[in-house]
Amino acid sequence: MATIAGITASESATDVTRSTGPRELGQEDFLKLLVTQLKHQDPLNPTTNTEFVAQLAQFSQLEQSIKQAQLLQRTVEVQQASLQFAVMPLVGRKVSVDKPLIELADGPATIRFALERGATRVRLDILDEQEQVVRSLDFANRPAGLNVIEWDGRRGSGEPMSAGVYRYRVNATDAHGDPVVTRSRADVTVSAIRMENGSPKLVAGQLSLDPAEVVELR
Q1: Reduced to 3 states, what is the DSSP secondary structure of residue 128?
Q2: Cut 0.70: pTM above it
Q3: What's the CATH code of the domain at 97?
Q4: What is the distance between the alpha carbons of residues 83 and 18, in angstroms, rounded to a whole number?
């Protein structure tokens, strides 16, 4: 292979110059190099059959590796397309996810969260896309289990927020000031499917959700 590389550097410079960019060597290119090597080999020290067989074996292995890589890539692409089409029916549907999200449309938005035990104080902060608090809601003496409250869709200053999906966080404490564990669940509408790092994601507002996070179809 060293002989081929040397001849290629000296005799194929013109072809390389004319090319518009790098390309992969194919079987035809290899045969041209092999013929060139035969034409320029030293008559007193010709290349042995063993060397030719070794070169052919190396090229064959390389070609098989390239074909396997191409086949694997096509297989991955087909799998990705299949996954994307599999979740297409969710577009336009409401799905439930165990995440602290609020879908604001027309009118008040419903917020659902569960308390592990009763809480004497609950603060709910609503966050915008930049994770900044736009509204804080305070409640007293909330019972254990599911709690459902409504947000009027306005900032703390009274200005209405635009429709979309927002995040919230809950801080709950008991009579002793100890934190109370909370769990959240939200219903959001899937508006589109988006591929991210080769995996389909559900688009809800500006957020991307993993289909595996869906716990219920509404």
Answers
A1: coil
A2: no
A3: 2.60.40.4070
A4: 43
pLDDT in tens, the chain (218 residues): 444 444 444 444 445 444 455 555 556 666 676 677 666 666 656 556 566 666 666 766 777 777 777 777 675 555 555 666 678 888 889 999 999 999 998 889 999 999 999 999 999 999 998 899 999 999 999 999 999 999 999 999 999 999 999 999 999 999 999 999 999 999 999 999 888 887 888 999 888 898 888 888 87
Distance (Å, whole) CA 111 – CA 108? 10
Domain that holds residue 137: 92-217
φ, ψ at 131 (rounded to 5°): 65, 25
Are 69 and 6 in the same domain?
yes
* Encoded amino acid at 69, one letter: A
3-class DSSP state of 188:
strand
Total count of residues recorded for the chain: 218
When divided into structural domains, the chain yields a total of 2
